[in-house]
């Protein structure tokens, strides 16, 4: 017969992750408590029990306490906690939970290692209770622990460094910093207290800064230097005791086009909040304030501004800041102010916490080192790039065993200078600063597989840029038109959309066909001819998909998300069918994928198609052979399609 204690703890919570335990507790409290179903209130009660459990655990023996006695033990222990942390808890604050709820939580948390910096279960509790409600609406999301740990590892802080997180939220980066020091044998309490004095946090959300203080205090026994203030204003009266400049800044600032970066008065103090124009290949600031500057832009400038010369910045930012044409001036600013140490592309589910929770925004981990005055004109230097495919959880936030970040960190530590092509992998490769193209720092733009393939192809193929072929009149590119949904189904003329391009064919949907009147208004402008190629330029997964226009397809209108490509007479023996094969080849498709970035929610190749390299075979007979195979393949399928269409018509004839 099991003891009463064993029966109460039948479910061994050591076998479950802290997140699963806290989710269980959250659901229990939400269903039980009357008048206190807000997650913030429930979390406050859980925090009191977590703090008190350190005392309760030492007072428990093998005897079984009733729910009332256990609750009293927790209440008395919390009085001691309040005396120790007078800045964290009000003098009249009490545990509000009933004895049954306290008992329920006790048997679920008592076997967890709640005060481990390495595992940080308190951070898990914060994410479960308030992760979606508090931060997503302000453009900020809890930084996954492995991402925070990675940036700390890459910046390699020293125990004497002054370290800042200027969007500290609930203290995730600060606990990662302290964990880094602990793993590096700074383990005694005196050293940890000294380290905490060197770590600073700022956030303008008072509730979150309180949670951050509690977070760090629970794990270390010391209250950290965390203030509630606006990092962009940097009001010294509110940040008394803070350093003027910092050795290291580690942060995940708010991001999003719809999030306000601050008032006009605040933004006027930032160079990057103004409009910039390109003059002779360089970017020049104007005197006009830009409209709707997103917070990640001005936070980047503030981070660089607050760094000491030679200081390091580790920051989580949207990939668009490093790849979008509209932010080229920001990358130009970064390159002029800092040495780029590392850029790691993250999978788009990094910030997904559940099926609906979090965001699919693709992000990068960026590490910079601020130039000293002597380094401003630094010569060409190597930078480390990587593209993670896995981040330890899936698109629903569920933990999975695949995580590329430890391998990337290991590769970074082993990398010294520029790597050879043979050493390249997506989990670590290098380029030199003079290889940065078009102010783009996204790692996947410099996909190492493309460099490896280029190296292999150069002996048998001529690698020719599409822009050069356009300049020589070999190729013409044109985009299509939109007709509006009201035009759908008004006539017999196919309106070709991205989803109609498949396996080199156009498979138009009759429901989207348009009237002859609309067709006649646009056909001259579109000028569709046999042997033209349509290629998808925008979309979720179809970018780069191509089809060729046959004699059956010339009476169409194609939409604006498609390129029409025409091959003119040329000295390269390039014909449309060979080009169709080239555009579909692994080498060109890898380039298209590398140059496709998110723009206003959808993926877009934009005008980066001009930089695609086409591998034209040096063997003319081989080119003709491939073109003939493609032509035969296309026409056999088209003829089969037309025969089937005709059969459907003939079957109804008398």
TrEMBL record:
Species in which this protein is naturally found: Mammaliicoccus sciuri
GO terms, biological process: DNA restriction-modification system; methylation
InterPro entries listed in its UniProt record: DNA_methylase_A-5 (IPR003356), DNA_methylase_N6_adenine_CS (IPR002052), Restrct_endonuc_typeI_TRD_sf (IPR044946), SAM-dependent_MTases_sf (IPR029063), Type-I_RE_MTase_Subunit (IPR052916)
Origin: domain of life: Bacteria
Protein name: N-6 DNA methylase
Residues annotated as transmembrane: none
Keyword vocabulary terms for this entry: DNA-binding, Methyltransferase, Restriction system, Transferase
Annotated GO MF terms: DNA binding; N-methyltransferase activity
Residues annotated as domain DNA methylase adenine-specific: 118-423
Cross-referenced Pfam families: N6_Mtase
């Amino acid at each position: 017969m099991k003891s009463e204690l064993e029966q109460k703890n039948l479910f061994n919570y050591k076998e479950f992750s802290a997140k699963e335990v806290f989710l269980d507790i959250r659901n229990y409290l939400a269903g039980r408590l009357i008048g206190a179903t807000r997650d913030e209130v429930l979390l406050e009660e859980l925090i009191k029990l977590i703090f008190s459990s350190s005392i309760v655990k030492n007072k428990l023996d093998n005897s079984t306490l009733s729910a009332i006695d256990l609750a009293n033990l927790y209440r008395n222990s919390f009085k001691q906690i309040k005396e120790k942390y007078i800045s964290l808890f009000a003098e009249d604050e009490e545990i509000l939970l009933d004895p049954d709820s306290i008992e329920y939580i006790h048997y679920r948390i008592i076997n967890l290692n709640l005060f481990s910096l390495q595992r940080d279960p308190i951070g898990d509790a914060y994410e479960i209770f308030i992760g979606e409600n508090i931060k997503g609406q302000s453009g900020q999301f809890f930084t996954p622990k492995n991402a925070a740990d990675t940036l700390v590892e890459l910046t390699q802080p020293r125990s004497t460094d002054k370290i800042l997180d200027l969007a500290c939220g609930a203290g995730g980066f600060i606990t990662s910093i302290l964990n880094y020091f602990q793993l590096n044998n700074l383990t005694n309490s005196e050293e940890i207290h000294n380290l905490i004095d060197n770590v600073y946090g700022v956030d303008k959300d008072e509730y979150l800064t309180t949670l951050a203080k509690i977070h760090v205090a629970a794990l270390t026994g010391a209250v950290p230097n965390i203030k509630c203030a606006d990092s962009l204003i940097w009001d010294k009266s509110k940040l008394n005791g803070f350093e003027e400049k910092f050795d290291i800044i580690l942060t995940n600032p708010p991001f999003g086009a719809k999030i306000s970066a601050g008032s006009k008065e605040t933004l006027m103090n930032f160079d990057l909040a103004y409009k910039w124009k390109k003059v002779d290949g360089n970017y020049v600031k104007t005197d006009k304030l830009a409209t709707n500057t997103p917070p990640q832009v001005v936070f980047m400038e503030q981070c660089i501004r607050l760094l000491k010369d030679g200081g390091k910045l580790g920051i989580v930012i949207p990939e668009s800041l490093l790849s979008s044409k509209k932010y080229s001036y920001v990358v130009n600013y970064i390159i002029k102010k800092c040495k780029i140490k590392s850029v790691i592309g993250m999978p788009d589910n990094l910030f997904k916490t559940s099926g609906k929770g979090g965001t699919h925004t693709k992000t990068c981990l960026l590490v910079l080192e601020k130039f000293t005055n002597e380094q401003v004109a630094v010569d060409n230097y190597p930078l480390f790039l990587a593209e993670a495919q896995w981040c330890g959880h899936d698109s629903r936030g569920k933990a999975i065993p695949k995580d590329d970040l430890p391998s990337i960190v290991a590769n970074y530590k082993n990398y010294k200078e520029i790597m050879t092509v043979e050493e390249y992998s997506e989990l670590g490769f290098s380029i030199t600063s003079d290889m940065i193209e078009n102010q783009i720092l996204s790692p996947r733009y410099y996909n190492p597989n493309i460099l490896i393939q280029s190296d292999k192809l150069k002996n048998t193929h001529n690698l020719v840029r599409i822009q050069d072929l356009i300049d020589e009149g070999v190729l013409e590119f044109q985009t299509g038109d939109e007709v509006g949904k009201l035009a759908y189904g008004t006539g017999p003329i196919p309106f070709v959309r991205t989803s109609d391009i498949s396996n080199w064919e156009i498979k138009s949907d009759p429901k989207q066909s348009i009237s002859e009147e609309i067709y006649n208004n646009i056909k001259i402008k579109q000028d569709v001819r046999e042997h033209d190629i349509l290629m998808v330029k925008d979309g979720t997964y179809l970018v780069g998909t191509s089809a060729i226009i046959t004699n059956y397809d010339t009476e169409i209108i194609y939409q604006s998300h498609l390129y029409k490509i025409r091959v003119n007479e040329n000295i390269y023996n390039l014909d449309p069918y060979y080009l169709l094969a080239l555009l579909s080849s692994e080498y060109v498709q890898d380039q298209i994928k590398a140059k496709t970035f998110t723009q206003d929610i959808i993926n877009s190749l934009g005008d980066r198609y001009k930089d695609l390299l086409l591998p034209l075979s040096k063997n003319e007979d081989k080119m003709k052979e491939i073109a003939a195979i493609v032509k035969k393949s296309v026409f056999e399928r088209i003829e089969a399609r037309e025969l089937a269409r005709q059969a459907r018509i003939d079957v109804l004839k008398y």
